[in-house]
Design brief:
This protein is α+β, with helices and mostly antiparallel strands. The chain is built from eleven helices and 21 strands. The strands form five sheets. Strands 3, 4, 5, 6, 7 and 8 form a six-stranded antiparallel beta sheet that branches. Strands 10-11-12-17-18-21 form a six-stranded mixed beta sheet, sandwiched between helices. Strands 1, 13, 16, 19 and 20 form a five-stranded antiparallel beta sheet that branches.
Length: about 425
């Protein structure tokens, strides 16, 4: 028998079976299944999806309760599994289960640290640190800070804070140990040139300048933007207004090691270089739709420049970036590169193009979760990809000494200024 004949025979048999069932249904000998019947068979004893969902939720809670009871009865040391500590640990686990490095749970102290970071001032010693093998290394000492007055230097490695070793702690944890209320004392143990030193420092309020600027003799303006904080856009505007645009040949904007923070600050800064209502970014996110979540982007918002009188629309611009330039830094660099067709120099950026929103919990703590992703005006995404500079610089060796690192960073700045000069020729 041919394949087509077999197919016809099967189809014909199914049709006859269906006709026979309909005939029995008319005689009252058989009832065709209704949608309710199908749902009941699928859900078993749960007569609705809502009741089934409630069962699943209760089952999950029972597993949590079982685990708490087992630990409380059998763990080697007495532990109270009914306290708020357990609830917070569970919330922290829920957020971490998203496997999103930018979604996090913030307790009281961490929330205070986060808020201080956005303002750009905090109580501490005034040293910018990074992780080292046996502690944290000082990358920068802020002018007139407690660390500056205590004569700490760039390259010093802090190994202990009070009596606690920093060998196995993260940079964030080290920062939380060093910072505390103004007027309190902290013992800092550090290593310099192989020698161990210990010093007592009184913490004070430290104002971290988010922007530094320098004008060269031949008319090139260099601006380093450390972070996009609440006052960054205002400080940036003041620097531009202090300098006559007619006396500036080109701008070099240094965004190395700038992790981003506030998109609004980057948006305001870009407004100085583009006409009003220029689209520099698109936000896309999902939204709760009556309890059901759609699987793809539903809402989109255009982020536009707002300045009605941009003051430097025709000025050549060079943006200097590295592997730690992220988020708002990448948005700024991309706009300059893609829309203005000026140049980006440095190393491939981090690749963070997502939006986080904080949600306050009843005890004053917060969860900060990713709610949207950014796209370029041409609908491209560089999330996890990063921006490739027009001119790529060599990476800094991992084993380089602090003196070598400072030298190489200076060379990168010089190369950016050289590129700016070529754009004006």
């Amino acid at each position: 028998m041919k394949i087509t004949d077999k197919f016809w025979a099967i189809s014909h048999g199914l049709s006859l079976s269906l006709i026979f069932l309909v005939f029995l249904h008319v005689l009252g000998l058989y009832s065709l299944p209704t949608l309710r019947d199908i749902q009941s068979n699928h859900l078993g004893k749960y007569q609705s999806y809502d009741s089934y969902k409630s069962f699943v939720s209760a089952k999950q809670n029972s597993i949590v309760d079982e685990t708490k009871e087992i630990i409380q009865k059998n763990y080697v040391e007495p532990i109270d599994m009914s306290g708020s500590y357990i609830e917070k640990a569970y919330v922290e686990w829920l957020v971490s289960s998203l496997k999103d490095p930018f979604s996090e749970y913030l307790n009281g102290k961490e929330l205070e640290y986060f808020s201080e970071s956005l303002r750009g001032n905090f109580a501490g010693i005034g040293a910018v640190i990074a992780k080292a093998d046996d502690g944290v290394v000082i990358r920068e000492v802020l002018q007139d800070s407690p660390a500056y007055k205590a004569q700490l230097k760039t390259g010093d490695i802090i190994t202990m804070v009070n009596t606690g070793s920093l060998r196995w702690v993260t940079t964030t944890e080290a920062v939380s140990l060093i910072r505390w209320k103004p007027g309190t004392a902290v013992d800092i143990t550090y290593r310099r040139w192989g020698l161990i030193n210990k010093i007592n420092i009184i913490r004070s309020i430290v104002k971290v300048p988010s922007i530094e600027s320098e004008k060269t003799k031949d008319g090139f303006l260099y601006i380093r933007v450390k972070m996009f904080w609440q006052d960054t856009a205002r400080d940036f505007s003041e620097i531009l207004l202090k300098n006559n645009p007619k006396e500036i040949k080109a701008l070099v904007i240094d965004l190395r090691d700038n992790g981003g923070w506030l998109l609004s600050a980057a948006q305001e800064m870009l407004s100085h270089f583009f006409k009003e209502d220029t689209v520099v970014l698109r936000d896309r996110w999902r939204k709760n739709n009556g309890g059901k979540y759609l699987s793809w982007w539903l809402f989109e918002e255009e982020v536009k420049t707002s300045n009605t009188n941009p003051i430097m629309t025709n000025l050549p611009i060079v943006v200097l970036v590295n592997e730690n330039s992220a988020s708002a830094s990448e948005i700024f660099a991309w706009a300059i590169q893609d829309l203005k067709r000026w140049k980006v120099i440095g190393r491939k950026t981090y690749g963070k193009w997502s939006v986080q929103q904080p949600f306050e919990l009843s005890d004053g703590s917060q969860i900060k979760i990713t709610i949207a992703r950014w796209f370029t005006p041409l609908n491209h995404s560089i999330d996890k990809l990063g921006i490739t500079p027009d001119i790529t610089l060599e990476p800094i060796p991992i084993d380089a000494s602090m003196e070598k690192i400072v030298s190489l960073l200076g060379q990168e700045k010089s190369k950016a200024l050289e590129l700016a000069k070529k754009l004006t020729q």
